[in-house]
Amino acid sequence: MSVRSKYTDALNFYGKETPQSLAEKFGSPLYVYNEAVLRERCKDLVGLCKTKGLHINYSAKANANPHLLKIIREEGCLVDAMSPGELYLDLKVGYKPQEILYVCNNVSKEEMKNALSKGVLVSVDSLMQVEQLCQLNQGGKIMVRFNPGIGAGHSTKVVTGGKETKFGVDPEKLPQLLEILEKYNVTLAGINHHIGSLFMEGEQYIEAAKILLDLALKLPHFDQLEIIDFGGGFGIPYHKYENQARFDLEKFSTMLNETLSAWAKEHNYSGKFYLEPGRYIAAECGAILGTVYNVKTNGTKTFVGTDLGFNTLARPMLYDSFHDVEIYRKNFSGESKEMEQTIVGNICESGDIIAKNRGLPVLEEGDIIAMLDAGAYGFSMSSNYTQRLRPAEVLIQKDGTAKCIRRRDTFEDIFATVTEF
Ligand code: LLP
């Protein structure tokens, strides 16, 4: 029975299962993904690629579970990687080197060598790293990330454009950059940027894209450019129960395709354009289930204690992010009172809050709760803090059945790297 679940009910999110049956079979806490939703989000974005050469380059940092990567690949998305681990997984699920972009930041030469040895195009974002990469790849191709001077995002922690951030080469340094490329006879095959994560309007993205396009025209070997990558950042409505509007993809698609098609035609560009979304693709297909073990009041505040510590879903603790809550109860009488409650986890820090001061039906011991929109930057940012086991991940397949796509950690996993003592 459910106390609050109209959002996932409407999608038949749990297929032939229920949150209770899933928690019983696979344990709590548990990440649950819905295949149909994941495919739909991929289709939304792939469908907006009307301009010739425009591709969706999924940003795997949002969720790199290989089972999901496989689906995302089937739906026609390319992929990025920003670490040897992500690159390993991208290749493992069958992405070809030319379908992968290595968009990294402050990396060692060993890491660059590793990506180059796999035949993957590498983007670096400072003159020093450009020089290091050129030394390793003389006569080859590289990609450079610029800082467009414009940033956007839900928190200063994820705004990645503008002078206050560590990212990208300042376009004013173009002359020095070109000198380095010439010295090593390296071709600038791609340029990219990423202004930040989570915006609900596309105007700033287009404005920044135009800056990158202008910059492309300043390159003496413009004709050698194969990829122009505008980054990701497309937001999703986290406030589902307040009917928050979706990112207007149709409007964005019109603006984007008009801009890119006209530009490509005017300048006779026959290379590719990339959009690099992570969250838009992965967030809404995922929820994390947890269990209520404790309800208490401290002064005037009611705390609902669960197993959803910030080791399982870090976003609320890190960015004060909002995730909607759904509630399931065995033997629900059908009646519930609303009250302000704060849902917390089982970690020894007061910041371990997963939903703050929420007006919700009064929660009870044994309730299963779901934090919605946890598919992106959920499991991928989870940890073993306080030696807790990271949750299992389950996929609700198109036929409604559940498939375990990652088992829960074991103590042996946690201690596997500890040397003899
Ligand atoms: N491309 C680059 C180079 C990036 O750094 C990122 C995200 C993306 C693409 C994808 O951005 P998205 O479409 O997912 O917004 N942990 C934060 C988000 C960090 C994003 C980091 N970079 C959160 O949970 O909100």
Tell me what you see in this structure.
There is one protein chain. The mean pLDDT is 97. Helix 7 (127-136) packs parallel to helix 8 (174-183) and helix 9 runs parallel beside helix 10. Strands 1, 2, 11, 12, 13, 14, 15, 16, 17 and 18 form a ten-stranded mixed sheet that branches. An eight-stranded parallel beta barrel has the order 3-4-5-6-7-8-9-10, surrounded by four helices. 29% of the residues lie in helices and 23% in strands. The protein is built from 13 helices and 18 strands. The chain is globular, with a radius of gyration of 23 Å. The relative contact order is 0.17. The protein starts with a strand and ends in a 6-residue tail after the last helix. The protein has helices spanning 6-11, 19-26, 35-46, 66-74, 84-92, 109-117, 127-136, 174-183, 203-217, 249-267, 279-282, 315-319, 411-415, and strands spanning 2-4, 30-34, 54-59, 78-81, 100-103, 121-124, 141-145, 187-192, 227-229, 272-275, 286-298, 301-306, 325-328, 338-344, 353-361, 368-371, 392-396, 402-406. By secondary structure, it is of the alpha/beta class. The longest helix is centred in the middle third of the chain and has 19 residues, at 249-267. The site of ligand LLP has 21 residues, from helix 11 and helix 12. Ligand LLP binds at residues 59, 61-62, 103, 158, 160, 194, 197-198, 231-234, 276-280, 315, 319, 377.
